[in-house]
Amino acid sequence: MAKITVPLELTEAQEQPTTAEVVIIGGGVMGMSIAWHLAERGITDIVVVEQAEFGSGSSAKPLGGVRANFSDPLNIALGRRSLEEFANFREKFGVDIMLNRVGYLFLGRNEQEKQNLEISVHEQRKQGVNSQMISAQDAAKLNPFLDPKSITAASFSPDDGWAAPSKVVEGYANGAKALGATLLNRTQVLDIQRTGTVIHSVTTNRGEIKTNSIICAAGAWSAEIGRLAGVPLPIEAVRRMIGITPQQAKPFPRIPFTLDLSTTLYFHNYQNALLLGISHLEKTGFCREYSYEWLKEFNAAASVFAPGLENPELAEGWAGYYENTPDKNAIIGQSEELPGFFYAAGFSGHGFLQSPAVGEIVADLYQGKESFVDASQFTAERFRTGGSLVSEVNII
Q: Gene3D superfamilies of this UniProt entry (predicted)?
């Protein structure tokens, strides 16, 4: 029952080059965004390697949320920048990403969550995000599945919504390839050769690529790539599962992407059905087998504030990975000990929505340019040196 979509397949076989200016490891939305942003600037001697099919890892979700309604100022800035690119994606890349700006609705069900939402909305509005606090009754008007008696407060950001990650991968990949980048699917990294502070090459199942620069965008597999390079990347894979109800002859009401902070339950429209999920308790590890065990937690949560969703009939489902870091926020940066090694991974559930902005930031890092924001708080060094961890409230 696992739903894994392959958004892009090369119709012609591409040979692996023996040299490259830069090798990007990971052919999902993050790797392809980085490839596009580099190629757009004239850096086209790029090889993107993907161990499976492009976009078949964490980018294989049927739909992915896009938003700027975070609590951390930098996360807000990344969300805003990315929303701008998503809004112009069809015109820029000729691909319909199914952008549907139904809004995001965060639910708070105690005083602490109410205060957190109020602080978040204040920070969002400072940065120009269209968000506001709304009452429980107004939340129920926006989403008739909700029981307003169970809600203390809510925040709503109408410019947010969802889009199709597979289509974004397709647009970036086709754009990067048209500019000269080489994209290699079914190509697994087996080793990275370095001497001291210098990278020499990347070895795959197809052979060796001589290069002095690597960008790791391997999602849940990034810790292993870091290990091969001798760069610690504290990322763990955690299985997440969703279910999709049967398609209805009469569509469900159009609702915002709705998330409950207390229980981590979330749901939104999917064609004439509903997509349902919860960040259920899972052990770390590379298991992507689908099961129904998440429904016990989902039903317990739904019974509290959305009783009409309890014990849902499911027509299909999907299992994939969160790529979690210790503080549940991204690691983006350049290794201090191995300057030719860059990384963008560990997004802990919000990588897709930040991918356009992160692609731009990594391209700036690679070129040694000042970016539109200072992303230094996201370097992996924060976990090694006792630096400040990132505090983000609006995640599940």
A: D-Amino Acid Oxidase, subunit A, domain 2 (3.30.9.10), FAD/NAD(P)-binding domain (3.50.50.60)
The predicted model gives 112-117 an average pLDDT of 97
Indicate the SS3 state at residue 241.
strand
Strand partners, 316: 244
No. of helices (H) and no. of strands (E), the chain: 9, 19
Instruction: Express each pLDDT in 307-331 by its tens digit.
Output: 999 999 999 998 989 999 999 999 9
Under DSSP, the state recorded for 29 is H
pLDDT 10s digits, 223-246: 999 999 999 999 999 999 999 999
Which residue(s) pair with 174 in the sheet?
Answer: none
Sign of the alpha-carbon torsion through 284, 289, 291, 295 = positive
DSSP string, 279-318: -----BSS-----STHHHHHHHHHHHH-GGGSS---SEEE
CATH code of 102-160+240-324, in short, is 3.30.9.10
Alpha-carbon distance of 245 to 227, in angstroms, equals 41
SS3 call for 381: helix
Determine the Cα–Cα distance for residues 139 and 133; give it in Å rounded to an integer: 10
Domain boundaries of the chain, sorted by first residue: 102-160+240-324
